Amino acid sequence: MSKRNISQISDEGYNSDRSDRSENTTEKIRVLSRENRIFKEKYFVEKVINNSANGIIYKGFRKEDKIPVCVKQVPKSKVGTWSDISGRIVPNEFKMHIEAEKCEGVVQVLDWFERKSSFVCVMERPENSVDLFELSSRLGAFSEDPARIIFSQIVSTCSKLHQVGILHRDIKDENILVDVDTLETKLIDFGCATTFKEDEKLTEIAGTPEFFPPEVYTTGVYAPEASTVWSLGALLFVMLVGDLPFQTTEQITKREFRYPVRIEIE
């Protein structure tokens, strides 16, 4: 089973990183050179593990103690929204993730660096963990007990994020890491995340279409928390059934899906 709706990006590879002439100032070059040197001194990059819609994910480790890490390289040309961290302009994804990691159940950010044509985010890489999509592909539909353990953690993490005004906007099986021994979960990928206020309605669309609520297609306006609830419902269906509840936009807007024969409705 292949990953869903992931648009591949082109990139010349981690070590190429061409210069951006608009930033070709002596001070800027000095800063970027220093950060590039620090990164190479601290971390070793092994291989590409995923080419996502907004960046390339590498497997690696921290040289000092051999702790496994995940390195995400985001080309500046692919950054849609910018933010600020201590006076530095960075991808909004980095800002959202650093704010979100204060909540239990979110993968931790260890470092971030700016390079000439990209930004790099270094994150923890939990051992014995795979994403929920891969786990479902291996095992098929989950029984109720492990599904309950996994799902309750994800709901709790989303709730904590909402309490601090962060909306992930891409809750799906591919963005959840699961420890195959303990079933502990970690939420990843804040590339679609945004902030929101109580009772606010949003119109910017971001995420994975199969997990969008109907109102995204019908009115283009959605409530942050309600949209998460819908995505969580779709996720739970995937876990218990082994497939998406809806295959088309029309099915989502009409809320049309069929329970497999093995699912009993009480």
UniProtKB/TrEMBL annotation:
It catalyses: L-seryl-[protein] + ATP = O-phospho-L-seryl-[protein] + ADP + H(+); L-threonyl-[protein] + ATP = O-phospho-L-threonyl-[protein] + ADP + H(+). Keywords: Apoptosis, ATP-binding, Cell cycle, Kinase, Magnesium, Nucleotide-binding, Nucleus, Phosphoprotein, Serine/threonine-protein kinase, Transferase, Ubl conjugation. InterPro entries: Kinase-like_dom_sf, PIM1/2/3, PIM_Ser/Thr_kinase, Prot_kinase_dom, Ser/Thr_kinase_AS. Its cofactor is Mg(2+). It is found in: Nucleus. Residues 43-266 form the Protein kinase domain. ATP binds at residues 72, 124, 131. Residues 15-26 have a biased composition (Basic and acidic residues). The active site is at 170 (proton acceptor). GO terms for biological process: apoptotic process; negative regulation of apoptotic process. GO terms for cellular component: cytoplasm; nucleus. Residues 1-10 have a biased composition (Polar residues). Residues 1-26 are annotated as: Disordered. Belongs to the protein kinase superfamily. CAMK Ser/Thr protein kinase family. PIM subfamily. This is Serine/threonine-protein kinase pim-1. It comes from Oikopleura dioica (Tunicate). The lineage of its organism: Eukaryota, Metazoa, Chordata, Tunicata, Appendicularia.
